[in-house]
Amino acid sequence: MNVFISTTLSTALILGLNIAYSGVASASTHMAHAHMGHVSMGWAGTPEGKGFLPTAMAEAKTTAQHAKFAAKKPNDLGWMKTHIRHVLQTIDTSLESKGPGLGYGVLKATGEAAKHINFAAKSEGASNNIKAHAVHVVASFQNTMDRAQKISTLGQAVLGTKNASKAAPLVKEIEILSHQLLEGFDANGDGKITWHPGEGGLNAAEKHMKLMAKGEGMN
């Protein structure tokens, strides 16, 4: 399908859903809502037509699953490399094209999600509610992209090593980071995981997307 047509159809679909949610509002407001829908609800270019955020979350769950598998046999280099390749495919398909993931990748899905939330916040007529929560959502997406990039770097290092004893601690670090893609990390030790830099992951992004949608009367 032509990319322009695909994007137009996706926008039209979300616009229609937003009208059902929020009643009569300006077209510019609906553009902000449409971009929110691209993140949370649907986009024609994803493997299953889901929003960028659920796509990223699905990929991240598979990342964590295979990072856990890889860490189970720290003395078996071949085993670790097999599952780290699966991890890399869920992170960035340009590194590994085949594997158990959806074929989109955490990095791409999260990057597109951040882009569309920025579009929403910058749309004419965007409410203060959208602008405020966009800061929280984008920060959580950036944390996730930072962690995904670290996983990518570590994973490539694992594939480049010829020694299981050198690969094992890298795999363990990947396993830890893989859980943080969704869960985030309590960086300041206050017992909470917020949206702030270095903390929130995709779960925090989802929380603030729901708060944004609630403030717009969309849920």
Compact summary:
By secondary structure, the protein is mainly α.
Write a structural description.
The chain is mainly alpha-helical. The protein has one domain (3-215): A middle domain of Talin 1. It contains 8 helices and no strands.
Itemize the secondary structure elements and their pairings.
Blueprint: H1 3-22, H2 27-40, H3 52-71, H4 77-91, H5 106-122, H6 128-160, H7 164-183, H8 202-215
Task: Offer a few descriptive terms.
219 residues, mainly alpha, A middle domain of Talin 1, 8 helices, 0% strand, disordered N terminus
Given the C-alpha coordinates, what overall shape results? elongated
CATH class, named: Mainly Alpha
Which residue ranges are poorly predicted, with pLDDT under 50 across at least 5 consecutive positions? 1-26
Summed up, the domain count is 1
Estimated helix fraction: 55-70%
Q: Any idea of the CATH topology?
A: A middle domain of Talin 1
The overall pLDDT, averaged over residues, is 89
Share in β-strands: under 5%
Number of strands: 0
Q: Name the CATH architecture.
A: Up-down Bundle
H/I helix tally: 8
User: Rg from C-alpha positions?
Assistant: 19 Å
Indicate the structural class.
Answer: mainly alpha
Main sheet characteristics: none
Distance between the termini: 31 Å
- Following the backbone from N to C, one meets helices and strands in this order, namely HHHHHHHH
